[in-house]
Amino acid sequence: MGATRPADKQWAYLSSQGRIMGCTPSSCGGRLWNDRSEAPVDPLDRIDEIIAIVEAARSVPMSRTNCMVDRGEMINALDQLRAELPSELRRATALLDERDKIIDAGRREADRIISEGEAEHARLVSVNEITVSSEHEGARIVGEARAEAQRLREEVDDYVDTALANFEQFLTRALASIERGRDKMHALREIGTFTGEETERPLPF
């Protein structure tokens, strides 16, 4: 007889939709991630690794509808994925907060420049005789102040647009990775590896 597995090792078979159905004393190829001290992993790479483990898993004996995975390792991997995704969402939230602060600061600076220009205009009018020359000079100062304010607004808009575009690329990659995983599951179902006929039970978290 083969060696007995440790008593604290839980094993489960995985349905066609990725739900852990119940325990059975068997194994699957590959190793998932037990060491939480590892360097951070890109959530997209984590999804690809989970898909690879499921693809490599053995079928349940006497069944073509399920595969066998290590329950503890799979839950650990999904827990880590769940912990990594919020960090990306927190980055997006921080970016939006930063955008608001930058826009507010830009607006305050623009208002300050305009106020200083208008104050300088008023000073010139009060100190000098009201002549066409002083009016033109005051108008020039105000015009330059408004142009500077507009430049600051455009720089803020460009910064925010670039930052949001980068986050949009991340989300696009994440959705594409998830879609690839779904396509692989559908392909495996069509060749009989998965059919999803059993009653499924959600993961315990």
Short synopsis of the structure:
This is Cell division initiation protein. With 205 residues, the protein is α+β, with helices and mostly antiparallel strands.
What are the secondary-structure elements, in order, as H or E?
EEHEEHH
What spatial order of strands do you see in the largest sheet? 2-1-4-3
Shape: rod-shaped
What's the story with the biggest beta sheet? 4 strands, antiparallel
Radius of gyration: 31 Å
Distance between the termini: 36 Å
What portion of the residues fall into strands of 2 or more residues? 5-15%
* Helicity, as a percent range: 55-70%
The tally of helices reads 3
Class by alpha and beta content: alpha+beta
What is the residue-mean pLDDT, rounded to a whole number?
Answer: 70
Number of strands: 4
Which segments are poorly predicted (pLDDT under 50) over 5 or more consecutive residues?
1-37, 194-205
Total number of domains: 1
Protein name: Cell division initiation protein
Please provide a written account of the structure:
The protein has 205 residues and is α+β, with helices and mostly antiparallel strands. The chain has three helices and four strands. Strands 2-1-4-3 form a four-stranded antiparallel beta sheet. The two termini are 36 Å apart. Mean pLDDT is 70; it is low at 1-37 and 194-205. This is Cell division initiation protein. It comes from Phytohabitans flavus.
